[in-house]
Each structure stands twice: as C-alpha cells, then as structure tokens.
Amino acid sequence: MLEATDVVVEFGRARAVDGVNLSVAPGEIVALVGESGCGKTTLARTLLGLEKPRSGNVSYEGRPLSYSGRALRAFRRQVQLVLQDPTGSLNPRHTVYEAVAEGPRIHKLPDEEAVVTSALARAGLRPPERFFLRYPHELSGGQRQRVVIAGALALDPKILIADEPVASLDASIRGEILALLLRLRDDLGLGALVVTHDLGLAWNIADRVAVMYLGRIVESGRTEDVLTNPQHPYTQALLSVLPESPERIILTGEPPDPTQIPSGCRFHPRCQLVAAGNGIDACHSTPLPVLPATTDPQVACHVVQALQAASS
Q1: FRET partner for 295 with CA separation of 20 to 30 A, picked from 98, 101, 227, 266?
Q2: Residue 33: which domain range?
Q3: What is the C-alpha to C-alpha distance for residues 302 and 42, in angstroms, rounded to an integer?
Q4: What is the model's pTM?
C-alpha cells in the first residue's frame, strides 16, 4: 500500500537516507529499528510527504506520490502521523474535542461531532463525551497519547506512521498503547510503520522488522526470524542490550556520521566481526547493494553472504 523505492534524502552534505526500499501492506505492522541518527525518522517523514527525496520515489497504492498541494492533502487523509511526545503534539489551550476535530475541519468532513466521538471511542477513551471539554494537562500520559491517536483516526486513514509511540510513556502504560495499535490493526485493517530504537517493542507488535544503519536497511524479514536469529552484526549488537541476552556486544568506533560514509560496508568501522579479525577484504573495499523491498529474510553483510555462498 505504501512503498519507498530507492529513496535518497540529503541535507547539504549529509545523506540521511541513502537508497532505501521499504513497503507496508494493508493490515501489516512494520517496525523500523535503529540507533538515533540512523535516518529512520527522516525516512518516516519522507513516506509522509514531509520531505521530498532527491532521487527515488514514494508510492501509495501503486501510484507515485505527487507533491502538489491538493494531492498531498488527499494523501494525508490516508497516511497519518502519530508522534512520540503527546504533550508536545497537543495545544495546551485546545480541548480534547478541538484537538481531534482539527483534522476533520481542515478536510471539511461532515458530521464533525460524530467523527470526533467515534475516533475517541476507537482510541479507547470512553465514554467519549466525558473527554470533550478536558484539556491536555488534565489527562494522564496514556490518555494524551490516545487523544493523539484519535486525532489520526478521525480522518479514517489506511496507514499510521508512529514515531516512537510509547517512548515518553511509563512502562505500565506502554503495553496499553501497543495493545491499542494491535486492536486497530485487527479491527480496522490499518497498516502501520512503527519507528523505534526498541527491539523489545518490535517483538511485541510488528509483523516485519527492518533494521536501519547510516541511511540504509541492513537487515529485514519476519519479526520472529530477525529477532530470534539475527544475521547482521549490527542487529546482533542491538539485540544484545536486551535483558535476556546472554552476551553484551560493545560496538567500537564512532557513531555513524551521514556526511562521512565509509568505503566498503558502511558498518565495518564499528563491526565486532572486523574488530575480532573475522572480517574479509570486501568489508573494507566493496560497497554492498541496496536491499530490495521484499518480505523474504535479507541481510547486507559481506561475511554473511560469503558464508551463505560457501554453504550452498
């Protein structure tokens, strides 16, 4: 339904997204995972039409996204954003009703009160009328996030793009919001791209995982495949910080700099395989191809590919 094809996004000398193929199908939740600064939020903004790629394209329902005002307006009814900080997302001077009604008013939807009532109910704020005249400061963190989600649902979208949707919430509330997203997927057939640095969140909610490093997808596949049998050294390092991991992997080198992309594999300066002497010459010298948009397991790593070739 929503797809990025060979997308490149640059800010000056920084190549924030450097050739990405990624798709979200109807009723599918895809987790986009990586460290801060890897380009995942820029990719999410590009999928929303908020950034225009230097090359490549974003398509919705098979048609390339048009950046004209009218076309973007229609597109944004179908693809809605849920931000990580509900307090910053909501105007403190607006009531809950006004916050949720903003989108329907912009798009001139009929039966505004019925739309707002339905959206609040679907977001788990019941009875909806009890919340109409409340202000954000009168709500809990979880309730504020539900208001933000209701604001997106009011436009009856087909895709949600959720940027760290539970990062600012207490642990006790996170499960409720994740359960809500799953229920919306099951009841409404919503697709979702969930941007996160938390692989535990991805395990609980996602059908597929795409792991991003320095502007590229380096591993993707079904959540169970990627998180129970990670192939890329970077994915292995991310998973090693989870409490149940038997071994902590400490990455060497500096965090990624999108203005200075290394030769060869872009991860090799920090790779634990290279640091242990288990890399190969190609790690330093040969760029890896861009991974395609597919549901099959795939990994961009010279060592893994060499092992696969040797065993086949």
Answers
A1: 266
A2: 2-210
A3: 27
A4: 0.93
